[in-house]
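Practice problem 4.
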């Protein structure tokens, strides 16, 4: 087992990894920018190394600085968390070249799933259902128009190297396809340095459902059920729950086994999440995230497993300590992502937290590095906390989340707590009858209030 792990991240996920390490008796190294020198993950680490100024490109994305920090502190392994360098294959390769273990999948699997076109082709080849679309990159607008005519409108043009909704455009008819193609390629080039796009059938009102998998280096793979991530704004998730109100146990087992079989075929190990659009009883592959997900705590709440602990064990060469038949699901779990944003305009709200009180009570969990007096820097993602609750039933879970949101106090900045309170009071959410379009319509009306 590792003696010391460097955590190449910040905020709540750095703190989350720290906690798992401490419970396993592993020392931790926190890296930080000058803007994060007073952050909680820095305060609680065994060792700290400043790796640069506030801009992420000069600190948390600085591969050489992070590997240097691991070298001078004699770290055995690096955990990348999520975001930043967590799905950067060249970073994983550099880590290995320096004799340090990367806590994640192989660089080959990161590359395979990092390119959306290759990922879709791979998924299709290994038996995962995919959305009808182009076989690869679409070279020009004429080809896009031809394919759209064959496929049927509406269609979705997506950046091959993209994510977060950038380089993604919908075309509803022939007159829109050329402009959508041009805009998508321009956005993709600006955001990712790669203007390549592909195209697929646009589904009307699907749900976003993902399957959590864990694999080891000995060929064992299990799934840990699904998460429903359909409440999204501009393709960014704000709320997740497990199990999904849209699935039954048979559907869960079927798609779970399909995913596990596919992961065994390619020899995948560590944590991974296969994401689908789900409509009319059918699953359509979107992408695979080769890392820990922001929303992993809801899975931990219903399975009783520590996903970070399992990541570390697998990376150390150990087998999974359980098989599929050992995985059980207890009750329901939900997560609200709390962002430092205006709940109506979604403008970022960095600044000093003047008062802070986290909710508590039975089956309530808060993953956050916030505290009274902390200054939220303006340089990074606006996610500042994740509120997770569990209940024996979905209704109990929903009522517990409402109570916890009511208790949560974060003064001095704007947060999205009030948005979550409003969302969870809606009948569609109470009934579980929502899809990936629902939140966009809701926030448009909420902004007017």
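Answer key:
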């Amino acid at each position: 087992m590792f003696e010391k792990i460097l955590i190449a991240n910040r905020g709540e996920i750095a703190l989350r990894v720290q906690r798992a390490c401490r419970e396993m008796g592993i020392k931790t190294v926190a890296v930080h920018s000058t803007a994060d020198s007073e952050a909680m993950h820095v305060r609680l680490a065994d060792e700290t190394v400043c790796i640069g100024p506030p801009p992420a490109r000069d600190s948390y994305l600085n591969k050489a600085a992070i590997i240097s920090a691991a070298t001078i502190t004699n770290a055995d392994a690096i955990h990348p968390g999520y975001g930043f360098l967590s799905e950067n294959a060249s970073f994983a390769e550099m880590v290995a070249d320096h004799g340090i273990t990367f806590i994640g999948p192989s660089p080959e699997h990161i590359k395979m799933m990092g390119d959306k076109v290759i990922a879709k082709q791979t998924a299709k080849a290994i038996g995962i259902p995919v959305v009808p679309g182009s076989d690869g990159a679409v070279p020009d607008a004429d080809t896009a128009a031809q394919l759209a005519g064959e496929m049927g409108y509406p269609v979705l043009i997506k950046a091959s190297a993209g994510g977060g909704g950038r380089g993604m455009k919908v075309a509803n008819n022939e007159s829109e396809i050329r402009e959508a193609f041009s805009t998508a390629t321009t956005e993709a080039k600006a955001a990712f340095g790669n203007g390549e796009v592909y195209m697929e059938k646009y589904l009307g009102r699907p749900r976003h459902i993902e399957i959590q998998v864990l694999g080891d280096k000995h060929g064992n793979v299990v799934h840990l059920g699904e998460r429903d991530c359909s409440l999204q704004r501009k393709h960014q998730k704000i709320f997740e729950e497990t199990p999904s109100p849209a699935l039954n146990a048979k559907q869960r087992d079927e798609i779970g086994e399909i995913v596990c079989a596919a992961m065994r075929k390619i020899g995948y190990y560590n944590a991974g999440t296969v994401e689908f659009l789900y409509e009319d009883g059918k699953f359509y592959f979107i992408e695979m995230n080769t890392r820990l997900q922001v929303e992993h705590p809801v899975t931990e709440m219903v399975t009783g497993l520590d996903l970070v602990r399992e990541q570390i064990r697998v990376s150390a060469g150990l087998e999974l300590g359980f098989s599929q038949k050992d995985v059980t699901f207890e009750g329901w779990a939900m997560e609200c992502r709390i962002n430092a944003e205006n709940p109506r305009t979604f403008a970022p709200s960095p600044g000093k937290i003047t008062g802070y009180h986290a909710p508590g009570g039975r089956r309530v969990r808060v993953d956050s590095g916030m505290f009274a007096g902390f200054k939220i820097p303006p340089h990074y993602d606006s996610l500042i906390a994740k509120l997770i609750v569990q209940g024996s039933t979905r209704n109990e879970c929903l009522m517990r989340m409402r109570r916890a949101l009511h208790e949560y106090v974060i003064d001095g900045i704007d947060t999205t707590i009030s948005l979550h309170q409003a969302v969870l009071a809606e009948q569609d959410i109470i009934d579980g009858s929502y899809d990936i379009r629902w939140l966009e319509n809701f926030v448009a009306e909420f902004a007017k209030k």
